[in-house]
Amino acid sequence: MAVNQELVRKLKGYFDLNIYETKVWLALLSKGISSAGEIAEISGVPRSRTYDVLESLEKRGFVIQKLGKPVKYIAVRPEVVIEKLKNNTVRDAEDKIKTLANLKDTTEYKELEELHKTGIEPIKNHELSTSIKGRSNLYVQMRDVMENAEKSIYITSSAYELLSKQKMFKDAFAKLVRRKVDVKVMVSDNEDEAKKLSKKFGVPIRSKPLNARFIIADKRELIFTIKPTNVHEDFDYGVWINSPFFTNSLAYMFELAWKND
To answer: Which of 8, 26, 187, 230 is most exposed, with minimal Cβ within 10 Å?
Structure first.
């Protein structure tokens, strides 16, 4: 069988197989049912390795062994393989989420917290400033800053950004409201859109002509982005600053804009 190397390369990535596994599976798919010797000859995989590869593929649901002698193998339909992999991926992800959700109750997590606390305490406020690259990293830091706020959260954003991360903002806003934290959000969209967003998220949202993206927590911490939301998420870039002197000034300007109707 003439092997299309590009097909082998792509399938290897799609199905998380190695090269030998991919070649053996393709060979078996082309024949339907074959012995290990026939598969080795068709695929070009050394016969000494073919048995191990077939065993691995059988465990993962790509092939099944036919009963009887001589031993032969049958290729599982690609559609069935894909469904099995999808189910496995969902199950593994759910297991991982459960593990992470319960991590805070472990002694290991308490040790991590203690290590972080020990390391962060000697650092001066002006040193707690850093750049954040990538939108997913930005949102992780935004959520952490919001959830740790004690008095106030001021946000400038857009309907697009709030809706694209609706679950994150909605969950965070709900927690803040329950803790009686003062939440104010300004968006650059029109007044009608601001009213709809305010109703959806359950916090005051006003329309202001500010093309900016930032979050101020307790007039002490600030995360502001350098790029608009229309850039690729990998190139989104922001800065986190823990400086009451600087952040309090920006919060004052935010409050002036909020009051200015």
So the answer is: 230
Based on the structure, what is the number of domains in the chain?
A: 2
What pTM value is reported for the model?
0.57
Q: Is residue 118 part of a domain?
A: no
SS3 letters across the chain = CCCCHHHHHHHHHHHCCCHHHHHHHHHHHHHCEECHHHHHHHHCCCHHHHHHHHHHHHHCCCEEEECCCCCEEEECCHHHHHHHHHHHHHHHHHHHHHHHHCHHHCHHHHHHHHHHHHHHCCCCHHHCEEEEECHHHHHHHHHHHHHCCCCEEEEEECHHHHHHCHHHHHHHHHHHHHCCCEEEEEECCCHHHHHHHHHHHCCCEEECCCCCCEEEECCCEEEEECCCCCCCHHHCEEEEEECHHHHHHHHHHHHHHHHCC
Asked if residue 39 belongs to a domain, the reply is: yes
Average pLDDT per block of 10 residues along the chain, 261 residues long: 74 87 88 86 88 89 82 86 87 87 84 73 55 87 90 94 91 94 94 94 93 92 84 84 87 91 65
Q: Which domain holds residue 21?
A: 5-78
